[in-house]
Amino acid sequence: MRKKVIQIFLIVCLVLTLVLGGCTRSETPNLPEEPAPKPLLDFDEDGLSDWFEENIAGYNPNVPNNRYIIFYYQVLDLPYETSHQSVMEREAQFFSEKGGVPPANIIELYQENATASTLKNAIDEVAKKSTENDIVFLRIEAHGGPSGISGGVSYKELDEWLNQIKAKVILVTIESCYGQCALPILENGDYPRIICATVGSDIAGSIGRDLRFFPVVDVIYGDGNGYVSLEEIKGFFEEERFLTREELEGLKEYFRNWEGDRTGLPFNPDNPEQLDLYYLPSEVKDLSNIAPEIYLVEYNPFTQKEYSEIKKSLLELREKGLYQSVFETASLISEILEKEGASEERIWQAKTGP
Q1: 79: CATH
Q2: How many C-beta atoms lie closer than 10 Å to residue 130's C-beta?
């Protein structure tokens, strides 16, 4: 009798095991075809992985390379809807969400809040935190004149304020009328500086915010390692984003013959000296030649498969001498994304930009 009870008990246990096991298997989702990638180590907690710092940027992975960013926008005569304030706000979001920069390290000064006083305070705040291992980026967009920008900021004062900051490099982009006049004033400092006139918004685009720019900067103007350095951006700017001397002379001639309303012009077309001062060549000044060593973010906006196909196509264009410009390749990149099953939003961004 006892043996029979044991047999019945074992049968019940077996049935329960099969039933419960079957339920468990039916509720378990299918495993991914490939295991999820393990998160990369970031020993110094600076938002850049140890692997990236050792293999790409050449930074010491045991020493933090913190990044600090100041956005300054002061164009009061434009309403928000048509101003670039929203562009800067999205760039700040990009650096935080994609670039690994803590929100506490990003200072945004817009319109009425963008003044000489607030900018000095922001620089003072960064100077209290930064070390000679850190990267500081000051992005300025404002009305400008030969000696400074709107908000009451003179280039001479800005030069003095920046000297308070200890950094591996201080990157300053100035997008304003007469912005080139800042170059000789700001190009040299106590710590290495890179000063760029007229194309500040293209920095974020080149490091991954713009799906059109990133692969061109990396593959056509760089080493194709999947990340973008400031040296690669510099090459892209000089070749594709700056006006040539011939184009500048053409603009001068155009405004010498200007017959329309002159009240909105930032110069007197009848004054050749003002024209020469206004239409100076855009440049990137890097007296320390440190741009090849600087990576602002560890980010690639494409999947490995997408980027492999994009890189192969761009290299083929370059080798055959068929590459023309970043805008000529936008359709090529969007077609590859479509082929790889990317979302409609990403395909559209590859065609038109962010």
Answers
A1: 3.40.50.1460
A2: 22
pLDDT tens per residue across span 288-341: 999 999 999 999 999 999 999 999 999 999 999 999 999 999 999 999 999 999
Query: Helices (H), strands (E): how many in the chain?
Result: 14, 9
* Model confidence at 155: pLDDT above 70: yes
Cβ-defined contacts of 287-293 (< 8 Å, 24+): 287/187, 287/188, 287/192, 287/193, 288/169, 288/192, 288/193, 290/168, 290/169, 290/192, 290/194, 291/194, 291/229, 291/230, 291/231, 291/233, 291/234, 292/229, 292/230, 292/231, 293/57, 293/58, 293/229
**Residue 226 lies inside a defined structural domain of this protein:** no
State the chain's mean pLDDT as an integer: 88
How many distinct structural domains can be found in the chain?
A: 1
Q: Show the tokens assigned to 229.
A: 């350095």
Q: What are phi and psi of 30, to 5 degrees?
A: -60, 140
In a domain, 80, yes or no: yes
Domain extent, residue 59, equals: 50-198+282-293
Residue 39: the pLDDT is: 61
* 229 in any annotated domain: no
* DSSP 8-state assignment for residue 113: G
Task: Examine residue 191 and state whether it is found in any structural domain, yes or no.
Answer: yes
d(CA 5, CA 339): 65
